[in-house]
Design goal:
Elements: E1 27-32, E2 35-40, H1 44-47, E3 53-57, E4 59-61, E5 65-70, E6 75-83, E7 88-95, E8 104-107, E9 111-119, E10 122-126, H2 133-140, H3 155-160, E11 168-171, H4 183-192, E12 195-201, E13 224-228, H5 230-241, E14 246-249, H6 251-260, E15 269-273, E16 288-292, H7 299-308, H8 310-322, E17 333-337
Parallel strand pairs: 1-17, 3-12, 3-14, 4-11, 14-16
Antiparallel strand pairs: 1-2, 5-6, 5-8, 6-7, 7-10, 8-9, 9-10, 12-13, 13-15, 16-17
């Protein structure tokens, strides 16, 4: 497949710059049985069934962006990609000259950080030993909004670019399908007999990168760490035994579940995944996907096309553009029943 087969024209005004005034009031495009229905996210409680299991990604976005200077005085920007342990991270470093191993960076006017070396496109950085790096990021860092959001992160973003169920810090981007849920919706689903289960996949900045290779097979997928607890495995088993469906909230939840099932059934685990899901992929776990609308030429759009059918999903995106749906992180949602 060629990458340009996953391109589409998106008017700039459809890129949502802010969340809706109230969480859960977005529109919902429901794709099923070759049909498209214009709905509201509030209809989710009608569209799920008793016995289904809803799988949420409980990662929490960290304040991963820091500004500072090199020992020479040159300005730098650091975007943490992954927290490795209590004192070390992998990060992108933007500077006029590439910092060398052994050099020092001084971030936020308060944090001396040592450059340990390169790890591919990232730098391995060591933060001071007297405090956990997550605490330092929370105190001195800034929320890393996606590149297509043009304003600087503010108090609204601090609340709304985070799911209501976020609890495991480590992501540098939100699992955006989960942003639509409020506590009332989650309770309504439980009251209907839907099981709520969790995975953790720490979303990396690579999720925003378009595929630049001419052919899809030439693209190298970024790696992310994920975990699936035994309670979620049990919920999946119970749902299947009762004839229920597995509903993944977001491509990140889907990637975690399908990665864990790559060699058989889903088992509790903590692992890494660089799974690249494109049309022709055999899904083993997920029956229904709730997701936002994604970037042209992105790996996420390719995943959606694999799940719902390429021609069907590209038609759905044309429909979304024509009907003024809001796109990307703060945009509207799409509920897709898997094409068999």
């Amino acid at each position: 497949m060629r990458t340009d087969e996953f391109d589409f024209v998106l008017p700039e005004q459809l890129i949502a710059q802010h969340p809706p005034q109230q969480r859960g009031t977005s529109r919902l495009l429901y794709a099923h049985d070759g049909l498209l229905e214009d709905r509201q996210f509030a209809d989710m409680a009608q569209l799920v069934k008793p016995g289904d299991v809803l799988v949420l990604n409980d990662t929490r976005v960290i304040k991963a962006r820091l500004f500072g200077e090199k020992a020479s005085g040159g300005k730098i920007e650091v975007l943490v990609e992954r927290v490795l342990n209590e004192h070390e991270v992998l990060a992108q470093v933007r500077a006029s000259k590439t910092p060398r191993a052994g050099s020092m960076l001084y971030l936020a006017g308060a944090i001396p950080v040592e450059v340990l070396g390169r790890a591919g496109e990232f730098f391995r950085l060591r933060f001071p030993a007297n405090e956990n790096v997550l605490d330092l990021l929370e105190r001195y860092g800034q929320l890393p909004l996606p590149p297509y959001i043009t304003h600087a992160a503010n108090e609204e973003d601090a609340q709304r670019y985070q799911t209501v169920f976020a609890r495991e810090p480590g992501a540098v981007a939100a699992p955006t399908a989960g942003l639509h849920f409020d506590d009332a919706m989650l309770q309504a689903l439980r009251d209907k007999g839907v099981r709520i289960a969790y995975v953790t996949l720490h979303v990396g900045a690579g999720t925003f990168q378009p595929v630049r290779a001419k052919h899809v097979r030439e693209h190298t997928m970024h790696s992310e760490c994920y975990g699936i607890p035994q309670a979620t495995v049990d919920a999946l088993t119970q749902a299947r035994s009762a004839g229920g469906r597995v509903i993944a909230v977001g491509t990140t939840s889907l990637r975690a579940l399908e990665s864990a099932a790559a060699s058989g059934g889903v088992a509790a685990c903590e692992s890494e995944t660089d799974i690249f899901i494109t049309p022709g992929f055999r899904f083993r776990v997920v029956d229904v996907l709730l997701t936002n609308f994604h970037l042209p030429r992105s790996t996420l759009l390719m995943l959606v096309c694999a799940f719902g059918g390429m021609s069907e999903m590209l038609a759905a995106y044309r429909h979304a553009v024509e009907h003024g749906y809001r796109f990307f992180s703060y945009g509207d949602a799409m509920l897709i029943e898997r094409k068999s």
